[in-house]
Design a protein that fits this description.
eight-stranded mixed β-sheet, two-stranded antiparallel sheet, transferase activity, 409 residues, alpha/beta
């Protein structure tokens, strides 16, 4: 049970009462009459064969207030796309699958590549971006939620609490970020958020001084959560990274485009568990190592756009400050774990902090060597300006895939 404390400059909506899912969904069904609601599910084909997504779909099938579900399907050949059509066909809600590896969407992507407007690398960011474009193209919903497809502890109350702030017509929120306790199987998880992002933000505040952006980012209880919701208009202007900086990039765009009172975060689950990335101590191109570098570069890039000047000496100071703060956090988390009867391996925590500290310097050096690097995917407003029929082309490609291959499914 959460308390009512408001931390930072972003409104926190707590779970103060165990409100029944039936009560929440009845209210959301009423809201949906004025403001149609949707859901984006960015998925790998492999997740259809896993443990989490089949269970998630069983929950979503019972959700009464969704007007549209958009599934982004990555790494799927034709037979796997057909399998996905069959897999999702049990959903009673209107839904469409973006077959991102199919010839129609690949042809559209090639056109955008020629214009220099397509995502530069594969991954969740690209998948989410095309799903956002489809939401704009279909015009069926006014507010939409997005969550991952690997949630092992999924319950449909997560979706209800996530979408409620942007669904309620009496609220003025344009965006809501989900948060939850990353506790599962008797231990505290969420290493990148706990041991990199929060101590790095505190270190940046200490070394760079007061900064509204850093205060904003440090207000979020779980900044790397992959669950958020937004009004449809948000999708026109947002520029998101195509790498592991997606969640940080989305928050940065919200800071740039909206006043703080239009944004909030909501407690959406008591427990949360999903698949875990390897620490990848010896491979900076994979796992938590690559994730930490991408996230750190995303923060550096954002601060640079606000006039912060970085040098190798600055990054050394940030690294040293971070390292001390992060080590102190390990003791804090350990004591919290012990008091709650949970496990926390101090040795592995310190190994993670040492790698993150090393990667702060790698990210800084990469930033200095490539100051003009822009891994952001263009906003849909810009794409429409260059290719006015792009949304119609996207909608038509998805619909033609569905019509051609859903026959007999």
């Amino acid at each position: 049970m959460a308390d009512f404390y408001q931390n930072g400059i972003v409104t926190t909506l707590h779970n103060l009462e165990d409100r029944s899912i039936e009560d929440l969904e009845a209210e959301l069904s009423e809201f949906s009459k004025q403001r149609p609601l949707g859901l984006i599910l960015p998925s790998l084909f492999s997740e259809l064969e896993g443990q989490a997504l089949p269970a998630t779909i069983e929950h979503i099938k019972k959700v009464p207030y969704l007007s549209e579900i958009v599934i982004g399907l990555d790494r799927a050949n034709l037979e796997e796309y057909k399998c996905a059509l069959n897999f999702f066909s049990t959903l009673p809600q209107h839904h469409r699958i973006l077959w991102n590896d199919g010839p129609r969407l690949k042809a559209l992507d090639a056109e955008l590549q020629e214009l220099g407007l397509a995502p530069k690398e594969l991954g969740k960011g690209r998948n989410v971006w095309y799903c956002m474009g489809y939401i704009l193209a279909s015009g069926k919903v006014e507010s939409v939620a997005l969550h991952d497809c690997d949630i092992l502890t999924y319950d449909r109350s997560l979706l209800a609490r996530l979408i409620y702030p942007v669904a309620n017509p009496h609220f003025n929120y344009e965006f809501c970020k989900g948060f939850y306790a990353r506790v599962a199987n008797g231990k505290i998880n969420g290493r990148v958020s706990r041991l990199l992002v929060t101590p790095l933000l505190r270190a940046l505040k200490m070394t760079l001084g007061h900064n509204d952006y850093l205060e904003f980012m440090d207000s979020f209880r779980y900044p790397l959560a992959g669950e958020f919701s937004f009004r449809r208009d948000v999708l026109n202007d947002i520029r998101i990274p195509s790498d592991w900086g997606l969640e940080i990039g989305v928050l940065s765009e919200m800071h740039r485009n909206y006043s703080h009172n239009r944004l909030c975060q909501a407690d959406i689950a008591k427990t949360y568990d999903h698949k875990h990335q390897d620490l990848s101590l010896n491979n900076e191109q994979g796992g938590l190592s690559k994730m930490s570098i991408d996230i750190t570069k995303a923060l550096f890039r954002k601060l640079a756009t606000q006039g912060t000047t970085f040098s190798t000496e600055t990054f050394r100071t940030i690294k040293a400050t971070y390292f001390r703060i992060a080590l102190d956090f390990i003791e804090t988390y350990h004591n919290d774990a012990v008091m709650n009867g949970l496990k926390l391996d101090i040795h592995n925590e310190e190994k993670a902090v040492e790698m993150f500290a090393h990667n702060i310097m790698k990210a800084g050096q990469s930033f200095l060597e490539n100051p003009m690097e822009t891994p952001f995917i263009p906003s849909w407003n810009r794409v429409v300006s260059a290719k006015p029929d792009v949304l119609e082309c996207l909608k038509r490609a998805v619909e033609e895939d569905f019509q051609e291959f859903s026959q007999g499914q």
